[in-house]
What we know:
Elements: H1 13-31, H2 35-40, H3 52-55, E1 61-62, H4 66-72, E2 89-93, E3 97-101, H5 111-116, E4 124-127, H6 136-147, E5 150-153, H7 159-169, E6 173-176, H8 178-191, E7 200-203, H9 210-218, E8 222-229, E9 233-237, E10 245-247, E11 251-256, E12 270-276, E13 286-292, E14 294-295, E15 307-308, E16 319-321, E17 324-326, H10 328-337, E18 341-351, E19 354-363, H11 368-382, E20 387-391, E21 403-405
Helix pairs in contact: 10-11
Amino acid sequence: MTAHYDALETRDHGAREAELFSRLPEVLRGAMAAPAYAERLRGLDPASVRSREALAGLPVLRKSELPALHKASMPFGGFVAAAPGSFARLFTSPGPIFEPEGRQADPWRGARALFAAGFRPDDIVLNTFSYHLTPGGFIFDASARALGCAVIPAGPGNTEQQFELIEAYRPVGYSGTPDFLKILLDAAASSGREVSSIKRALVSGAAFPPSLQSEIKARGIDAYQAFGTADLGLIAFETEAREGMVVNEDLILEIVKPGTGDPVAPGDVGEIVITSLDSHHPWIRLALGDLTAALPGTSPCGRTNTRIKGWMGRADQTTKVKGMFVRPEQVAEIGKRHSALGRLRLVVTREGESDAMTLRAETTAGSEALREEIAGTLRAVTKLGGTVELVRPGALPNDGKVIADER
């Protein structure tokens, strides 16, 4: 597989950045027609946001906030100017969070991911994501049909009927969770059913550890991973290079320090924040709560967009200490008040029968006076006492963890 979906995937990185940020002001202008964005972005001149630096100055909208916002202003929390009837389908996800599907071709941006996984026009795809109320099934269904594939809308479960469909239609592709693919293959092997037509797969929605990857490969299926959400569709996907995931086109991906909207240093682990350029339903700096890190350089497959390592855990590390919540943004605030500090990690343990906190802080300017100042800031910000340990730069792991609950 050496071909690409289109020329956009291999264009100069600078040209892509220029094109995305030339479109962003108009998207912002449209977003501000919705009351919630109008309030959040009050006083903003959209024409001034033409760079990553300018975008980083806008407020982050956390996905964890959406259930309450949607409940307060049904159905989309005031973040969509268009009427619900202007969309093609209307879904809900746990929370509840309400998600609309656009009427354009490939509304979830998934055709590129399928193409990168080896799917081609006229392939038959067994889609086992759920079609009931949530958008998962329709995300992969619409993406495959946009690529020119025929789709078997199987959904999950009922393996006996799945075998009948597979034997009748001989699908070459599978989309669904890696777990259900293994269930299908195990059940087919134990019952003597024929599923050998399936040669490639695009999996998502669950962990796909190396052991399972090897097992699926040994059974003759070339499986690739994709990372997406019900809000945005496919955000990044594996390619034949098998070196991280390439970010999808038409999305601006930022990686920020958990609990903030501040970009991390290149290569550092942080929270994924997405701005989409869909004028019908734009997302402006939506913080997903998922951690990742960017990879340096360009993918050997020839695609030039940013690559990420994939899903690396959750950014929402809020924990309760002595009956009070301590949040990543509070740790970030401590760092902002002391410019000499690098990475921070608040370690929560038990001492005897009581909770205890230790703030580990990287710095080259270690002194007892600085340690005492930081301890005072820790108490002022969290309203809880704790010890401070100053460590050399690089002593803390680059894993995006701001609060480590070790109780």
